[in-house]
Amino acid sequence: MEKQIKIFAEVIEPEALAQFNEAMAQPFSVKGALMADAHTGYSMPIGGVVATKGVIVPAWVGYDIGCGMCAVELGHKKEEFDFQKIFDVIYKEIPVGFNHYSSKQPVPQLPHTEVVTKGLAKSGQYQLGTLGSGNHFIEIGEGNSGSIWVVIHSGSRNLGHYVASHYMKLAYVESIDTKDLGRQFDELKNSHRFKEKNPEEYAKAKEKYIQREVANSHAKSNFEGHFAFDVNSQSGKNYITDMKYCLEYALQNRRAMIEKVKHIMGVENELTFINRNHNHAEFDGAYWIHRKGATHAEKDMLGVIPGNMRDGSFIVRGLGCEDSLCSSSHGAGRVLGRRQAMAKLSMEEFTEQMQGKFARVEKDTLDEAPNAYKNIFEVMQLQKDLVEIIDHVKPIVNIKG
Length: 401
Known about the structure:
This protein has one domain: tRNA-splicing ligase RtcB (Alpha-Beta Complex). 37% of the residues lie in helices and 25% in strands. It has 13 helices and 16 strands. The chain has helices spanning 14-24, 58-61, 83-93, 114-127, 157-175, 178-184, 191-197, 199-216, 220-223, 234-265, 338-344, 347-353, 376-382; strands spanning 4-7, 29-42, 44-52, 55-56, 68-73, 137-142, 148-154, 229-230, 272-277, 279-283, 288-292, 294-296, 302-308, 312-318, 327-329, 387-400. The protein is globular, with a radius of gyration of 22 Å.
């Protein structure tokens, strides 16, 4: 039976299309869609959505599990605030980039495995409520009605990366054929006879090998592939448990920053709160829907789609489009990689584009300049059947890591 595929991007890199086609060629892939902001990633392109039957693929969720958007409408008007002061205080009170808190922060109290426990011990307990770097941001902006919004893009920090790395390696190692195991390790020589004559010892030897490989594997090219867990296997169940933990951690991370920003602004009330992550896998009752850099957009579901530092974010309502697997873009989508942007873009133009906004407009943030991204207005037009725009939040303050 032919697989259902829908591509919403008008212009797409050949590498991104090849990645998507390879993901869809996997025997467990049932249907898929490529969003309007799609661009090259690894394993599956950013903006890819794929439904699978009975399996979950850690690399299709990616390293920053639960990375996503929160938006809060405050209802106040911009005349009420000193934005220069707010800009300065946010940078003083909220750790950005590689910075984190010196004391442990309250973390989610949800079921998890020892993988999460180790990730929390390494850095996760100190990073909740911190921004990170790259394209993560805190923005304060003005909606169409003049109401002030706080919009945050961030994820699960090093915890998500640690958890993702563990399970991506494990999925790769568990996929290796037993004949290859025998070739690589003395204790598994003649593995088929070993397995038949002493299955218990074989199982122990294979587990020892798997743990060794997971601990020692550093070549991303090995495990950034289409390696899947059966959702009913112990590894599959463990990944799902820990992925859900990271989704909640990412939400609480954004929520903590929102509360800090509101405190800095001297505001308590909220008119609207939206949380929508764009790196996850979830079960829809029939299939596991993997969204990598794509936003869930069921009918009437509120979402947030950011554009760039100049053009701000769109508050949207999902239209429940089945062709997109009830998804939309997660942003504008890059047209220049970070190194390309640094080499090709002009600081003079970047400075002119950001006139009137409180932001760090400097060489270190040039890779986040508007021209590094697709035209967000064109991207929104391409997905008019996926989401309805209900507000456009134009930036006043922009905080980058």
